[in-house]
Amino acid sequence: xxxxxxxxxxxxxxxxxxxxxxxxxxxxxxxxxxxxxxxxxxxxxxxxxxxxxxxxxxxxxxxxxxxxxxxxxxxxxxxxxxxxxxxxxxxxxxxxxxxxxxxxxxxxxxxxxxxxxxxxxxxxxxxxxxxxxxxxxxxxxxxxxxxxxxxxxxxxxxxxxxxxxxxxxxxxxxxxxxxxxxxxxxxxxxxxxxxxxxxxxxxxxxxxxxxxxxxxxxxxxxxxxxxxxxxxxxxxxxxxxxxxxxxxxxxxxxxxxxxxxxxxxxxxxxxxxxxxxxxxxxxxxxxxxxxxxxxxxxxxxxxxxxxxxxxxxxxxxxxxxxxxxxxxxxxxxxxxxxxxxxxxxxxxxxxxxxxxxxxxxxxxxxxxxxxxxxxxxxxxxxxxxxxxxxxxxxxxxxxx
Amino acid sequence: xxxxxxxxxxxxxxxxxxxxxxxxxxxxxxxxxxxxxxxxxxxxxxxxxxxxxxxxxxxxxxxxxxxxxxxxxxxxxxxxxxxxxxxxxxxxxxxxxxxxxxxxxxxxxxxxxxxxxxxxxxxxxxxxxxxxxxxxxxxxxxxxxxxxxxxxxxxxxxxxxxxx
Amino acid sequence: xxxxxxxxxxxxxxxxxxxxxxxxxxxxxxxxxxxxxxxxxxxxxxxxxxxxxxxxxxxxxxxxxxxxxxxxxxxxxxxxxxxxxxxxxxxxxxxxxxxxxxxxxxxxxxxxxxxxxxxxxxxxxxxxxxxxxxxxxxxxxxxxxxxxxxxxxxxxxxxxxxxxxxxxxxxxxxxxxx
Lengths: 400, 164, 178
Description:
Helices cover about 50% and strands about 10% of the residues of chain A. By secondary structure, chain A is mainly alpha-helical. The radius of gyration of chain A is 23 Å and the shape is globular.
């Protein structure tokens, strides 16, 4: 390099990648110091959608907290709901029947598919391929139809209750799930043909926002972002919950940790989720028990309405649960599930009252977003945008 | 890995600074004296047999009526043995002061900022301790028990409807 | 198919059509609203579903989403607005040129929603004037489309002198804006 050129003082300019992003990712602010097009350093600011979930959880009885957990990772809210229910069940020592476990697995894998569909199609949109987004959202609508048949809501599902599910899957839900298992593979293949071996997409995303294994471990990455670097840590395998140990699935890993690997890991995980749902359906057919959809815990699970009106015990249990008089044992518990973004943990401390004493959410997005300034250092602005969208940062989860 | 093995190793090294070592809930939970928490985490990280190299989370707790007012709770995970551990340290200072863990785990950076934002914990040696989720010029620490949940500036709430 | 939209009431003759200018301007404006999706949280995902092909927003004329407030007509605020975000929202609103309309989508934007906490703004109408509120948590795409159609009705029937009227000026002054 010409030594004369090195003596010239560089002047950096500051660019505000402000809180109002194009509508896809949620609100984060990054103040970038740039040398022309290259990013020298960046300073993120978060908290633009801080809704005080942890404080709110100290005021609500246990069954009302599910609605808060919905709104954390809102692309895959059933996973958050199930995680919360399992945390309370762990604290109260409730045993869940196998059939409920398998039904929960189906719901969680459907949620994982919706989360990865959003992330991957948005990576497409950010690199200019809007078509994938339009086609893929059609399958999300089908999954929303399944959620509606199960619980009545599309996005903020509040699925399940402490002790199981609120009702068994109807015949309509099964029909829709079967139809999805036929349609979704075709749709995914079409989406893959558009992007996976596309020369332009590969040039755009390979080596864009690389992440080394050491950095990923230092910053406590979990989930698809970590698996894209080559480390196969998956909570479903390490600490199995909800009978995941009965299922056979592989954990896809990448090599470089760049955007292309993250995209491919999520793509493969969707195929694995489809296979898990198929296995769950087969296992459900083999079970002799075909009717239970909740554990037998009258202290936590509301009795059916006809019993409430006719039997005294059921009335008393109903009253106690709704008024929050049920005694949750004192103690503390930490439970984690594999959310769409990684290890979603719930640290619950109970003092025996009707509301938790302290509930701390271990939110994967919050923890790994710290590494973002290091990941984009030295890259171009357009690569920084693509890196953020491939990390799947969801604002609701980031700011609790 | 068994909890007895972990307890043994920690006791040999730290002896009287360990206040409590029990199975709480589903996890081994070690309560250590306030001045020993950083050394303990450093020991757990460096030790070649234990290898607690993954930081799961750091959070704070506030006990207005308890014997000690504040505590910090750290969850660690040793992947090679698939063993989880919970560490606690209590203090009654206000504001509570702890050493920073960012020299061992860079991931602790934002976790400590969040704990500062919510409870007022001061982490000595933290590179950039300022509020992260709340407004920068906020007064007070919201997760403390005495801080009100609801927006105090609302004028349109009918007290009768809210049971007041 | 002859007409795509109904003509306003007027007098027709060979080669000409006479109607009020308000009606024509309203008709043109309502079918070509450029929205600014200010999506912050869960309602934003429902908006993405509204924009996608199943519940298409483009057939209402909103094909081009503008992310720059200077080029947008309709500010759609979707999701919770925290107090930290309030000044940003206000700045975005002030940058929009007249005529502008605001659609508040979701319970959080309309009134704070389920988050009655110290950090959430209890309704965006504390800082900017709102035209149509769409309740729901999150509202279904059909509800969002209904909200957009109500905005279209407002746009079509608005007099072009409305922004100069005393009442409007008083409304703006109550928010501290010119």
